[in-house]
Design a protein that fits this description.
single chain, alpha+beta, 5-stranded antiparallel beta sheet, 10 helices
Length: about 300
C-alpha cells in the first residue's frame, strides 16, 4: 500500500445564510438571540463566517470534511493560547446541527485587526520577526497527543507528495507559460527532502488572511482549522508568499530553519503558486499578477540559494 495519503474527492460545499444562523443562535444560545448577525466579507472557504453582535464571530463549516476541525479547535486552542505571544481565537461555545444545518459549528471572539498585505505592513523585517517568534512558540509546545495529519487538515504536516498530483496538473497547464523545468526541479527537490520525524505543532495555513494587523504590526493569528503536529515546513510557505527578501532572511534566522525544512517549505509555497497561476492563466487581474509574483520570487530565491 502507498504511504502517500489520499485527499479523496473534492468536498461538496453547502450554503448558509444569515437567517439560518439566527435560527441556530436562537435555538441553541437564546442568551445571544437578540444580537445582530451579519456575514463577514471574504469570510473564507472552509467556513462561513458571520459577526454575532460586535464581539463574537460564528464559524460554520461549509462541508463535512471541514467540520472535522471543529472538535479539534474546541479541544486544543484553549490549551495552545497560554503559550503563544499573540491572541488566537479561543472558542467560547460549540453549536450542534440544527435549523437545516448539518454540522457542528463554533462561536469565537472577534479579534480586531485587518488582514496582512504587503502595503499594510509597517516594517517588513519586524513583521517577519514577530511572525517567526509566534511560530517558534507554537513549535515549542509539547506535541504529545496532538492531532496527527489527517483529513481534518488535508494532511498538512505529512509528506509534500500528498499534493504531487495537483502540482503536476498545474505544471502541465502552465507548460509554455512559465519555466516549468525550474519549477519541476524545485518541486522534486522539496518532495525528495526528508523530514526528521520529530513532531512539532504547526498552524497549517499561515496566509495573509489569517494574520491580522493593528497599526501595521502583527496583532493576532486566526483560523487554526488545519493545525496539527508533524512536519512544520508547511508554515514556512509564508516566507515566499508575503515576506520581503530581507524579511524572509530574518524569518529564517529567527526560527533557525535548517536547509531541509526550508527546501520543503519552498515546495509548499511552490505548490500554492503553481495552482494559483494555473487557475488564473490568461488573466491580468490582481490575483493573477500576485500569483506570478510569488512564483518568480520562488525561482529567484531558489537560484540565489543554489549559487
Amino acid at each position: 500500500m502507498s504511504s502517500i495519503p489520499d485527499l479523496g474527492p473534492v468536498p461538496q460545499r453547502i450554503t448558509v445564510d444569515a437567517a439560518q444562523v439566527r435560527r441556530l443562535i436562537g435555538d441553541q444560545f437564546p442568551e445571544w438571540a437578540g444580537l445582530p448577525v451579519r456575514p463577514v466579507a471574504k469570510g473564507g472557504w472552509d467556513n462561513f463566517t458571520f459577526l454575532l453582535g460586535d464581539a463574537m464571530v460564528v464559524r460554520l463549516p461549509s462541508a463535512a470534511e471541514y467540520a472535522l476541525a471543529v472538535d479539534k479547535e474546541q479541544r486544543w486552542l484553549p490549551r495552545l493560547a497560554p503559550s503563544l505571544p499573540l491572541p488566537i481565537p479561543i472558542p467560547v461555545a460549540k453549536g450542534s446541527p440544527g435549523a437545516d444545518y448539518p454540522f457542528p459549528w463554533s462561536i469565537h471572539p472577534w479579534l480586531q485587526g485587518e488582514p496582512a498585505t504587503a502595503d499594510r505592513i509597517a516594517d517588513p523585517v519586524r513583521f517577519a520577526l514577530d511572525l517567526a517568534g509566534f511560530l517558534a512558540a507554537l513549535q515549542g509546545i509539547d506535541a504529545a497527543d496532538g492531532p496527527q495529519p489527517g483529513k481534518h487538515n488535508w494532511f498538512r504536516g505529512a509528506t509534500l507528495r500528498t499534493y504531487d498530483a495537483t502540482a503536476r496538473r498545474a505544471l502541465t497547464a502552465l507548460d509554455g507559460h512559465i519555466d516549468v523545468d525550474t519549477a519541476r526541479e524545485i518541486w522534486k527537490t522539496a518532495s525528495d527532502t526528508p523530514w526528521d520525524g520529530k513532531d512539532r505543532w504547526f498552524h497549517g495555513d499561515v496566509a495573509q488572511g489569517n494574520l491580522l494587523l493593528d497599526g501595521g504590526e502583527l496583532a493576532a493569528v486566526i483560523d487554526f482549522g488545519t493545525c496539527g503536529v508533524g512536519d512544520p515546513s508547511c508554515d514556512m510557505a509564508i516566507a515566499w508568499t508575503l515576506l520581503t527578501a530581507d524579511g524572509r532572511q530574518a524569518f529564517r534566522e529567527r526560527l533557525s530553519v535548517d536547509d531541509a525544512t526550508w527546501a520543503r517549505g519552498r515546495g509548499w509555497a511552490l505548490w500554492k503558486a503553481l495552482v494559483a497561476c494555473a487557475q488564473t492563466r490568461g488573466r491580468s487581474d490582481e490575483e493573477s499578477v500576485n500569483a506570478r509574483r510569488v512564483l518568480y520570487g520562488i525561482f529567484s530565491e531558489y537560484a540565489s540559494d543554489h549559487r
